[in-house]
Amino acid sequence: MAEGEQSPRRLMVIGIIGALIGMYLARYLNLWTGTAWFSFFAGLGAICAVYYGADAVRRVASYGLGTGVPSIAMLSFGAGQVAVLLGLAVAKNYSIWFAGPVIALILAAIIGLVNGVMARRVIKMNIHIMEMSMTEIAMAASLVILGLSTVIAGSFTFNAIMSYVVASGFIIAVFIVGAMAMFHPFNACLGPDERQKRTLNLALSTGFIAMLVAGIASGAINGVQAAVPTLIIAIFGWIIYYLRFFADTKQDAAAMLSTGLIPAEEEVA
Amino acid sequence: MDPQMMVELGALTLVGGAALIAGVAEDLESDVGSQSNPNSQVQLAPQMGYLHRLYNKAISGEPASYPFYAAIGAATALSVLSVTGNNSLIGVFFALVAGAFVTALIHGVYATTSYMGRLASQSRFGQPIYMDVLRTHTPVLMAHGFVANFSVLLLTWVLIAQHLSPFPFVVLAFIWGIALGGVGSAVGDVHLGTDRYYQDRPYGSGVNAAHSGSVVRKAESGLRNSIDCAWFCSKFGGPLTGLGFGLVVYLHFWKEVVVKDWWSAVAGIIIVMIFVIMNTYLERYSRQRYGTYKEETEAE
Amino acid sequence: MFSLLLWVWIILGGILIGAGVHFIPVGGAPAAMSQATGVGTGTTMLAAASGLTGLIGAGTAYYTHPGDFAYTIVMGGVSAALMISVLAFIANVMYVYGAGVPLASAKVKYDPITKWRQDLYVSRGTEGHGSPMASFISGILGAFLAGVGGALVFFALAETYKAIPGFSATFGSYPAPYYISLAAAFAIGIFFLNCVMASYNIGGTIEGFHDPKFRRIPKSIAASLVVSAVGGLFALLISVMLPGGI
Q1: Domains in chain B: how many in total?
Q2: Nearest to C195 by CA among C82, C13, C43, C29
Q3: Helices H / strands E in chain C, number of each
Q4: Which of A10, B9, B247, C240 is deepest in the core (most CB within 10 A)?
Q5: Does any CB of chain B come closer than 8 Å to the CB of residue A264?
Q6: Which residue from C120, C124, C131 is facing B205, i.e. has the nearest CB?
Q7: Does residue B254 belong to any structural domain of this protein?
Q8: What are the beta bridge partners of residue C110?
């Protein structure tokens, strides 16, 4: 861990607590007011999870996975969506629907740990943080799926997610948009001079794009109430973090030229 | 021939045509952005001391980025359709256009982040970020991506409307996105990677691994940019990708529409056999026509 | 309700997906520079491209012949094999006419199927180019296995969820019932679980069944067994958790 970086533990706390707070706020405020105006809180929660997941991807993928960065996110989102729906179904069966996200998180951790153990012990990948990373990424993935699904459905009960998010097929959009938001930051900033701050600012910007897509999809379910606040917040958030990423890029790049020829050999020190 | 099959054959023709256009546009889009496989060369070039003015769009590989676009487009179209209703043809058309448009915007944003991110992470090699490359290439990418995504959404919609697949719109668009990206990166990228990036090397051989990264950086006049690469690849790589994806989609549904029940499995196997035979001829032709690279005695 | 047989189908499907990935000739990024034998895409996504096209075929088969096990899985396999035969053939046309290279493999001296000499046709500094006959046939076999595997997972999940009360409803006026949507989404998820595990096992490029890396396949089968057992168990438990439907 280089100087000035955020520690994995801190990011984990931000990711998990932030995502859960966002989802519960969205669910309770929507329930309390009887509207869908507050769905956007779940989107903000999902962004916290993207922030955390992007750093977990960054840590494991910097070892070199052999098949590119995207694979690990695809695997984790595949595991995450099964865990999420089982978690919500368990909560429904025992009538403890408020515990749904927590159960989903625990199940995602279990399935992620199994994947990690298989990758490290059976396939014998030489990455010592594999088990931990797979667990963390699967947890983050389940929170992203749940957060974005809550934006779309306005609630995280099994019935709402099943009939609005899964039946319409939006679950697959959530799957790939969330996965892309999580692995794109490190994939886009891949290189010897990669820096955590820039990567994570990009993660926040892609997270807001994921929220934007969820906001568009929420229009199909809850109409203007859910879509408008989500879209406005997503666009503003995206602008802020895109500009921050731009500033970081300007600081890190060798040169940012408006135009020009290729520098000659001797100019490159 | 029963009328239902006539309608389905018409739908099949439309689907095949849309797939062909999607394939062509997809490959040219990836050539402008240097996405997917040849990206490794553009990424490696500054490290080997070859600074360049090519675009570096690493939104993962094409088979992961195209389902991303297709799923966003399909989700947006579904959302628009929930307002307009899916009964009028013109309403559906505009919903698909809206889907492809939102996709194009998001595609453009992701493209700029990967260009800037990758180049900033190579600062120790002195590779500058050219803002004019960003400004001129990104709209071209978005335009090609728009055409490709609109075609994917159109073909998916026709399949759903004709009840040729039971999957939800977004799921089907996602899967066709993966297939499109797979064909695009397997077929079109070869023209870009083997031929266009190494045009100064002798034609008719693979790129020697020792030359990796020494991409052509100068054009017929001035410096090479990635839009030139799309111009070059539009002569062979793009159309062949279109043919490939068009055949994948067309033959897939041909075997289900024209023949029914177990005969469609038989038809599928026969088509596979025909491709195996054609491949045998192609392989024999290439060996006889081009000859060997080394003499028998040289080989160990 | 939980059925042991359907769980076995999911595990078997996962194993077939993981094994199928090893058959598919993948050249990865070097294949685009004609530096490696195989189709130029990453392992995971090429397997997904063919296997999920097979899933579309399986879905249509399941839709036209509800509950027909044999037809669903055969159509899944055939559709995937058809996709990769078109893909590999068109890619070979590209290599022969676009790059001007003969199809050759550097891993074997003679092609195991055609018995044609390979090493003389490999250009300097490369590991072969295109998909020669052995890789081509291997790819078709691999895609068939992956397609059958995906179809098995889809069939098992769809049959399970069909029994849940209320799951035959549809979203708005669209034709897809709930159980097909959920089964398709999970089949894609379990497909990715297995094919990413297999591609970690391969670690880069593979030419097909004649490649030395192919001998790593038992490790992948063991990993797929556990991963799809857990994933499949989770997916099937949903039906146990919903006795009253939704």
Answers
A1: 2
A2: C43
A3: 7, 3
A4: B247
A5: no
A6: C124
A7: no
A8: C117
Answer yes or no: do B172 and B286 share one domain: no
Cβ within 8 Å of B, C 141-170: none
Interchain CB distance below 8 Å, B129 and A256: yes
Q: Which helix (H) or strand (E) holds B266?
A: helix B262-290
Same domain? For B144 and B105 the reply is yes
> Using CA atoms, how far apart are residues A202 and A252, in angstroms rounded to an integer?
14
Q: Where are the domains of chain A?
A: 8-249
Nearest CA in chain A to C178: A167
- What whole-number distance in Å separates Cα of residue A37 and Cα of residue B184? 42
Distance from CA of A75 to the nearest CA of C (A): 5
ipTM value for the complex: 0.94
Is A57 within 8 Å of A186 (Cβ atoms)? yes
Are residues C35 and B164, on separate chains, in Cβ contact within 8 Å? no
Same domain, B271 and B226: no
- Domain borders along chain C are 4-241
C-alpha pair distances (Å), A93 with each of A52, A103, A108, A149, B111: 30, 12, 18, 20, 45
Contact B201, B213 (CB under 8 A): no
Q: Global pTM? A: 0.95
User: Domain span at residue B277?
Assistant: 259-290
C190 interfacial to chain B (CB closer than 8 Å): no
- State whether B182 and B272 are in the same domain: no
Alpha-carbon distance A158 to A93, whole Å?
Answer: 10
Question: Within this chain, do residues B185 and B279 fall inside the same structural domain, yes or no?
Answer: no
Placement of tokens 């998010």 in the chain = A165
In a domain, B299, yes or no: no
Q: Same domain for B154 and B84?
A: yes
Asked if C35's CB is within 8 angstroms of B206's CB, the reply is yes
Contact A118 C226 (CB under 8 A): yes
Question: Is B39 within 8 Å of chain A by CB?
Answer: no
Answer yes or no: do B73 and B97 share one domain: yes
Residue type, position C70, single letter: A
In this prediction, residue A72 carries a pLDDT of 87
**Residues of C (116-135) whose Cβ lies below 8 Å from B:** 116, 119-133
pLDDT at B246: 94
C160: three-class secondary structure by DSSP: helix
Q: Is residue B174 part of a domain?
A: yes
User: What contacts C115, CB < 8 A, 6 or more positions away?
Assistant: none
Cβ distance B194 to C99 less than 8 Å, yes or no, reads: yes
Encoding tokens for residue B135?
Answer: 């400004």
Shared domain for B190 and B272, answered yes or no, is no
Rounded Cα–Cα distance for residues C153 and B32 (Å): 38
In C2-31, the residues whose Cβ lies within 8 Å of chain B are: 28-31
Q: Which residue of B has its CA nearest to A267?
A: B126
- DSSP-assigned letter for residue C177: B
Question: Is residue C73 within 8 angstroms of chain B, CB to CB?
Answer: no
Contact in structure between B294 and C120 (CB atoms under 8 Å): yes
pLDDT at A237 over 90: yes
Most B CBs within 10 Å: which of A213, A225, A235, A242, as the mutation test of the B interface? A213
Paired sense of beta strands C104-105 and C127-130, if any? antiparallel
Judged by CB atoms closer than 8 Å, whether chains meet at C200 and A123 is answered as yes
C-alpha–C-alpha distance, residues B44 and C74, integer Å: 44
Digit-coded pLDDT (tens) for B220-278: 888 888 888 889 999 999 999 999 999 999 999 888 888 888 898 999 999 999 999 99
User: pLDDT digit string (tens) for C151-196?
Assistant: 999 999 999 888 888 888 888 878 888 999 999 999 999 999 998 8
Residue type for position A211: M
